[in-house]
Every structure is written in C-alpha cells, then in structure tokens.
Amino acid sequence: MKILVIEDERELALSIAEYLKKEDQVCEVAGNFKKATEKMDEVLFDCFIIDIGLPDGNGLDLIPRIKEIDSNAGILILTARDALSDKITSLESGADDYLTKPFHLSELAARIKAIYRRRNLGGNTVIRHNEIEVFVQNRIVNVNGNPLTLTKKEYDLLVYFLSNKEKVLTRESIVEHLWGDEVIMADTFDFLYTHIKNLRKKIMEKGGSDYIKTVYGVGYRFTEQ
Fold first, then answer.
1. Nearest 5°: phi and psi at 189?
2. Which of 90, 108, 105 is nearest to 47 (CA)?
3. 55 burial via Cβ count (<10 Å: 0-12, 13-18, 19+)
4. What are the two backbone dihedrals, phi and then psi, of residue 202, each rounded to the nearest 5 degrees?
C-alpha cells in the first residue's frame, strides 16, 4: 500500500512514516497543503493520512481533489480537536475514518489496513482466486490448500495483482506502488521481472495456474481464468 502522510508536525509525520514502513507500507510525507497537492499530482496513492490543521490550509479541502484523482483512495483524518462537529464534518466530506491526537501508532496502522480492505478488497480478510487463498491479516498464502512461502515483495505483488484483476498494470505503476517513487527512475526494471518470475514459479510449483500474463511493451495483467 502506498500512503501519503500530510502532517505539519515533522516529528510526528516521520514517526508515522517510519512505523508504517516497518509494517511493509510505502510512505511519503508532505508538511503542508501546497506540498501535498504537488505530490498528489505526481504520484498515485492508495491512502491518505491528513491533519486538519495545516499551516497553509484546511486538510479537509484536500478531499475533493483526492476523490477527483482516485475515488477509491482511502482517507484517514487526524485532528487535535476532540469536537463532535469536526468528526462529523470529516466523514461528511468523504473521509473513511478519523483519529484524535494523541493516538497510538498501532491503532493508526490497524485503521489504515481496515480502510484498505474495505476500499480495495471488499472488506475481506481472506482473498480467494480459484486455487489461491490469501489470509490478509496474517499474510498467509495457500495454493490448493498447501502453504506458499513468499518474500515480502512477492506477497505484496500477489495482493496488488489480486486487487486489480484483469487490469493492465504498467511496469512503472507496479514499481511505484511497491517500492515508491524513488525507484521509478531506475535505469532497469530487472528486479521487477525477477520478482514476477519467482512468484509465477512458486504458484505453479504448488499446482496453481499461471495467471500473470505479460502485456508486451506495457506491463502485466492478472487474469481471471
């Protein structure tokens, strides 16, 4: 999952990003309204963590822009104000959830994962595709009932494919989603080819079908059949 943390308290923003990275998420930080809009125009994010009280604007005003770019992106609002009106306004503006400061980072991470499941996985904690089963909460994968051992990136790649079945995903979008925009400027995507090759091989060794199809010159598509 690719997350943008929009928070002007730099120490808090970096703490959030560091914690979520340990949870195998890809995170970027924007310290104000202007920087957030710039990043949103450059990169697609799966989820946004937004502080209401930004120094150069109201964080809630970013929501319409987010919805215009990607209506399926998740939004969690952070606020230091423990007022019912702020919470209601956040949800009515299109946010999925909110947290009042101070909060535990573990709770923030759990809520982000719940938002992602609702938005991208239909709220499911188990993803099933024919002979493949993915238990999202504990990151367990079975093929034909047999456990499949995957690296972190192979697992993330499989979940990303399952969340976008039948969509043609460009190499750039896959790399950006799993590794972040720093890697997108790499001279070669050989590392991506290696991960996909290994994922294919491991699934097929357990008796699974090869669902990952190469779209030459573009990227890949995870097929239904």
1. -105, 30
2. 108
3. exposed
4. -65, -40
CATH label, 2-120, candidates 3.10.120.10, 1.20.1440.230, 3.40.50.2300, 3.90.70.10: 3.40.50.2300
Which residues are within 8 A (CB) of 148 and not within 5 positions of it... i.e. 6 or more apart? Answer: 141, 142, 202, 203, 206
DSSP, res 95: -
pTM for the structure as a whole: 0.68
Sheet-wide strand order for 132-135: 126-129, 132-135, 140-143, 146-147
Could you give the dihedral angle defined by the CA atoms of residues 105, 107, 110 and 112, in that order, rounded to the nearest 10 degrees?
-70
Matching CATH number, 126-222, of 1.10.10.10, 3.30.300.10, 2.30.30.320, 3.40.710.10:
1.10.10.10
Query: Could you read off the pLDDT of 70-94 as tens digits, one per residue?
Result: 878 899 999 876 666 777 888 888 8
Return the domain boundaries, the chain: 2-120, 126-222
Contact status, residue 161 vs residue 155, Cβ threshold 8 Å: no
